[in-house]
Amino acid sequence: MRFMMLMIPLGYESAPPDVQLDPERVAAMMRYNEALKDAGVLITLEGLHPPSMGARVSFAGGKPVVTDGPFAEAKEVLGGYWMIEVASREEAIAWARQCPASDNEIIEIRQVQEMTDFSEEVQQAAAGFAELPHAGRAGSSISQQEGSAMSDNSNTYLAIFLGSRTSPAWKAWDALSDADRHTREREGMAAWHAWVDTHKDAVVAMGGPLGKTKRVGPDGINDITNQMAGFTVIRAASHEDAAKMFVNHPHFTIFPGERVEIMPVMPIPGG
Predict the structure, then answer these.
(1) Which is it for the CA torsion 45, 19, 153, 229, positive or negative?
(2) Helices (H), the chain
(3) pLDDT for residue 188 is more than 70
(4) Dihedral of the CA atoms 29, 34, 37, 41 (nearest 10)?
(5) pTM beyond cutoff 0.70
(6) Nearest-5° Cα angle at 230, 78 to 130
(7) CA distance readout (Å), 13 to 18, 49, 70, 109, 156
(8) Which DSSP symbol is given to 11?
(9) How far is 4 from 230, CA to CA, in rounded Å?
(10) What is the pLDDT of residues 102-121, one digit of tens each?
(11) How far is CA 75 from the centre of its chain?
(12) Buried b vs exposed e over 41-71: b needs ≥16 C-beta within 10 Å?
């Protein structure tokens, strides 16, 4: 079972572009990263620049609009992530609890969806997904991913797909008949495949949909909900070019998603 462990540093939403890291904190985190690697559970990990260096692509009224960060409405943002492969959600939580996080840091645990989680029709529409870069590859340890974003983060960007179950788009989706919804799912997966094929040379890690969330913080472990639906890692010549890749993406033109947020990935200090 694959899980994303999403690091949320409180206050990072207003951090300047040149935010500095504490070397002692970095050293402690690197020891934790090495423990994940030595245990054979680490697939990949990345740190993210603050939102002041990010961009959002929103689609109100079906028209893509690119907004440069920082984002005044943001209350919690990602600072980085790990993807691990473990036997259970409990084991993922156990690893999150070992993280040397500070009082202002929270980790959310999200299970990565597998193709077997979807209907047969969707699986047929997604035929070939497993052959895409790093898509759905259980058992791929970090040592097997030479040439991935871990080895060279230059011009690497994390794209997060977001959407709210209470949005008008989701309400319209839920109002569809089963037959119409399955038709839209097939159309959406076909369009998503076309998007990947168009940008296949830029895709570093295909990523995938995200499941239910466990949050680990100073107050313990809690079940929560948020708007993160999936992720992809890409490379592009610039932040603007990375954002443009997601204009008219099927996440919001066919599926009931709301927006895609694109953030540059930082090099790992000392890595």
Answers:
(1) positive
(2) 23-38, 89-97, 120-125, 168-175, 178-198, 239-244, 250-253
(3) yes
(4) -40
(5) no
(6) 130
(7) 13, 10, 7, 20, 20
(8) T
(9) 10
(10) 989 999 999 988 777 777 77
(11) 18
(12) bbbbbbbbbbbbbbbbbbbeeeebeeeebbb
Please name the residue that has the structure tokens 């529409």.
125
| Alpha carbon distance 75, 214 (integer Å) | 18
Which residue has tokens 């960060």? 69
pLDDT interval class at 146 (50, 70, 90): very low
Phi, psi of 142 (to 5 degrees): -65, -30
Q: Residue 97 is encoded by which pair of tokens?
A: 């609890």
84 contact partners, CB below 8 Å, separation of at least 6: 2, 3, 5, 36, 41, 42, 43, 92, 95
Nearest to 133 by CA among 200, 85, 192: 200
User: Could you tell me if 230 and 207 are in contact, meaning their C-beta atoms sit under 8 angstroms apart?
Assistant: yes
- The type of residue at 162 is L
- Please name the residue that has the structure tokens 């620049």: 49
Average pLDDT over residues 191-196: 88
User: What pLDDT, in 10s, does the model give residues 170-185?
Assistant: 888 889 998 888 888 8
In angstroms and rounded to an integer, the radius of gyration of the C-alpha atoms of the chain is 18
Using omega within 30 degrees of 0 as the cis cutoff, is the peptide bond preceding 70 cis? yes
